[in-house]
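W.,

You were right to be curious about this one. When I first looked at the sequence I had no strong expectations either way, so I just let the prediction run and decided to look at it fresh. Below is the sequence, 294 residues in total, followed by the output.
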Amino acid sequence: TGPGVSCGVGGVRLQKTVHRTSDAKTLVSGLRCWSGVVCKWICKWRGGRGAGELRGCGPRCVGLYVLQDVLSVRIIFGVGVASTEADAERGSRDRIVAAAVELFGERGYERTTVRAICELADANTGLVPYYFSGGKEELWRAAAAQAIGSAITDLELELALAESSSLAARLEVTLRTIVHSAARHPELFRFIQSAADGSSPERHQWMVDRYTRPAAELLRALFDEARATSLLPDVDSATLIYMVLGAATHQYLLHREVQKVVGVDVFSDASVRRHADAVVATFLRGSAEVDPQP
């Protein structure tokens, strides 16, 4: 981001957001050049000796150079503080998006307010139009990108790392990644469910076109290849995708129910490992290469 103006104590203050040292040097050089031009103009108008010759300049020029030095310090100092300010801004935005994912997933779009999101995020409501010019709708889309987009990226990364491995190994990576994503971020799947509740077909279609269909196509290509070699049950891949997703995610969506009925903390590391082992053992077959992990 470039230089900007913001309101501070005592009126308007100059806030420089310079991120590279070279930017600061350029701005300071320009400021000095500007000071020299103005000084020359003042001296010529008042009959002084010329630009930068402070001994012959009047108080206006001296004041000009003092202002130049003050602003130069502010610009250079801005290099050091800009990254901190930017990190703080990103932190506020990230908290708002994370809170939006959670509340949109729990309450749906219509029953979730911007105020409730900001209260959960411990953020000022004025930050929402600042970060999301489209208001609540744009915030919802940012939440979709965070919830679903990040999960797809995680899966793509894991598959890329296992690209040279056998088909069975890539399948196991896929199944375990889905389970671990559901355990780490159950709000992700609640978000998808809330978007598919029928209250907003347009919003749901946007999510399907942008995120869930590409994710399903990624899984379908892998599952089709696995079915052809009998590594997965001979079930239509479209059906198999939702069978896998249900088995991998359901207990995390119903974690309170599971805790009360069978007394299991589904989010403990041991429970997540056992659950991933069970999903792999249930769906992946016909290969001695795949061993349940401890």
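Here's what jumped out at me. The radius of gyration is 29 Å. And, maybe more interesting for your project: Residues 183 and 234 are 28 Å apart (CA to CA).

Coffee later to discuss?

I.
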